[in-house]
Amino acid sequence: MKKKLSVVVLLASLLLAACGGKNGETDSSAKKEAGNAEQVITVASGGELSTLDSAHYTDVYSSDMIGQVVEGLYRMDKNHDPELAVAASEPTVSDDGLVYTFKLKESKWSNGDPVVAGDFVSAFKNVVDPSFGSSSSNQMDIFKNGRKIREGQASIDELGVKAIDDQTLEMTLEYPIPYLAQVLVGTPFMPKNEKFVKEKGEDYGTSADNFVGNGPFVISGWDGNTETWKLTKNKDYWDQKNVKLDTINVQVVKEIGTGTNLFDAGDLDYTVLADTYALQYKDSPQANFVPKAMVGYLSPNHKREVTGNVNVRKAILQAIDKETFAKDILGDGSTAINGFVPKDFAKDPEIGEDFRKENGDFLAYDLEAAQKSWETAKKELGKDQIELELLSADSALAKKTIEYVQGQLQQNLSGLKITLKSVPLQNRLDLQTAGNFDLVFGTWTPDYADPINFLEFYDSKSGLNTAGYNNPEYDQGLNDARITLANEPEKRWDKLKELEETLIEKDAAVLPLYQGAIGYLKADQLKDLQVFPFGRTVSYRLAYVE
């Protein structure tokens, strides 16, 4: 493959050879390697950017971009572990494990304002506030009164976060959380410039001009609809001396084939691989495949007559040959999954066994069982012919997925007709939120490595539960896992396994299809790109051009 990035001699770049330090900073040898090359890359985003508001994002493409331009108390280091970011030091913790007190570094927003503790407090309140409408509101349940506030049983001012002063942030938790640092890396826990947010109102985050960040890069050229934008090095970032890329040109490339063609032509330095293209490039030295704790699934609308029938849902799930789909259609390292919690994600706290292996398979592909459930469902519904619409975003992966599902269901379930509807991602999200769907294909990537981050997706009070699943016993079980059993790890683990069995085997509330992997093409000259197994997909903070 030809060299795609021009090399120029930059005398000023010699100044960048200073030694790095702690917190994931790179060493001086890497700085010298980066010093002789123009630090400009062009990368693909698999979908459009829908928002820069960390309270309103619902898709991975927006979350990824927010992660380039905003930074919270922690960030991910090169080993994918949490490390200090805006937090100046590890917090002091009360004896009961409920009160965390953080001191903040001196850092700035991209408009020059200082980052203060109140920026975290107001951001968290935005997420939990019922009137704000964040789909991540349940994430704030970790804080004292978080759930009560989003359910309208407590005032927003009773949330367990407060600014002691500009540099001191206090958090009071609802229950002890030993993995709190992992949680706080998540996008919903990013700060927002309180003053700027108030000034912009509902326009905040809708364009680059209506946004300020405090992360390693600054965004420009995005007006809310454009499919190209630019990230440039943030000169006011607290750790800017260890950010080597000067410019990242981002363009939306929804079709995998288009991305590979642009990469081969030298017009992209990073783009994703999937399905037949993953198979085509599997032996390429520029191809990389990383397992990911992401699950692709079908979400049935529980509030509609047909998809509200449990036997319909079980029939659909067991009529799809997921093994063939993962191997022959995706071909990117993805695997079939018969549960909602992925493998190699969380381990039994007592014996170290993987959650997926320990909990086994639920409603795996079984054509005979599927057809039996289908005939029962048709009798219960009094219907012989059924038509359902399957909704998805218009990305290449989404289209291939729903086309495969359509073929499987129409072939294996007599009297069923599936019509397909592919729309831009934001339209799909809007239709989901409004409940205007029968079946919808989506993916879920957790923010931290605990099974509850998957299972609470279907909490009846979760903003993400657009399916309308409502099982009081399931909700109570989640509450037990969060609070009652917080200090009894093995009992909590057993409860989480029981909840997944209820979600899939008993209620078929969600219909998991596959566990994903990230396949991507990367230019040889692009070094130290961070690609994450969960949470956000990619970070350019440590990357450089050799």
Throw out a few tags for this protein.
Dipeptide-binding Protein, domain 3, four-stranded mixed beta sheet, 17 helices, single chain, alpha+beta, 546 residues, disordered N terminus, D-Maltodextrin-Binding Protein, domain 2
Characterise this structure.
It comes from Enterococcus termitis. Residues 83-463 form the Solute-binding protein family domain. Keywords: Peptide transport, Protein transport, Signal, Transport. It contains 17 helices and 21 strands. Helix 9 (310-318) runs antiparallel to helix 12 (367-381) and helix 16 (472-484) runs antiparallel to helix 17 (489-506). Helices cover 30% and strands 20% of the residues. A hairpin with a 7-residue loop joins strand 8 and strand 9 (228-233). The strands form six sheets. Strands 11, 12, 13, 14, 15, 16 and 17 form a seven-stranded mixed beta sheet that branches. The protein has a four-stranded mixed beta sheet with strand order 1-10-9-8, with helices on one face. The protein folds into two domains: 11-252 and 523-545, D-Maltodextrin-Binding Protein, domain 2; 292-518, Dipeptide-binding Protein, domain 3. With 546 residues, it is an alpha+beta fold. The two termini are 16 Å apart. It has helices spanning 28-35, 60-69, 117-128, 146-150, 180-184, 194-200, 256-264, 275-281, 310-318, 322-330, 355-359, 367-381, 396-412, 425-434, 452-455, 472-484, 489-506, and strands spanning 40-45, 74-76, 82-84, 92-93, 99-103, 161-165, 168-172, 217-220, 228-233, 247-252, 270-273, 287-300, 335-336, 386-393, 416-423, 439-444, 511-522, 526-527, 530-531, 538-539, 544-545.
